[in-house]
Every structure is written in structure tokens, then in C-alpha cells.
Amino acid sequence: QMQLVESGGGLVQAGDSLRLSCAVVGHRNSDYAMGWFRQAPGKEREFVAAISRGGSNTNYADSVKGRFTIARDNAKNTVYLQMNSLKPEDTGIYYCARRSSGFVYGTTTRPGDFSSWGQGTQVTVSW
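^ that's the sequence the OP posted. Answer follows.
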């Protein structure tokens, strides 16, 4: 059975960096686009970034452009989210997600665009 397993979250200070990883277990992942979402307490789950199956196309939320980078290593069945210049408003549970398609577009930003989800990893950014 396919599972998405996130890791790399933690407590950091504003301006620090973190790298999240999402390992896809039990299924070859190279045919599918992947994404990251986050959810802060009391708020809806929001899109962060997405990457196409080959890694050539990416899409980012405006709030993280220039600070976050999504990447993938299909040989390792793993997707990454490098987060730099973190801000307290980046705090939340970060979820890895997989599409049933290999493609991403500028409009691929809704949770409903993704079919499988991990359990999430907590990121907390303090002043």
C-alpha cells in the first residue's frame, strides 16, 4: 500500500531554514506530480508548492515565492521542500500530497487536485 511519509519539521527561529522530505513508500512515484500544503491552527489547508513528475514544472504560492524551493529525486522516490528565510506566519502542519496526474499548472493549487496525502509534519517558527 502506498504511503507518503513526511519528515524534517521542527521548531526554528525567524530567518532560519528547514528542509522537509516526503518519502513515497510502496509505489514508484516518478509518474506523478507532487505538492506541499500547510495548515495553521484554525485555518484552512493552503497550497504551498507543486512539481511535475519530471521536475521541469513547478508552481508556488505567492507567499513563499523566492523563499521556498520544491524539488524531487525520483531515484529515491522522495520530494523535498527547502524553506529559507522562515517567518512566524509559515508556522503550521505541512502535508505532502500526490496527484493522479503527472502534470502541474498554474491552477493546480487546490487540495482537491491531489488524491493522496501524508500525515503531516509540524513546522513552528518563532521570533
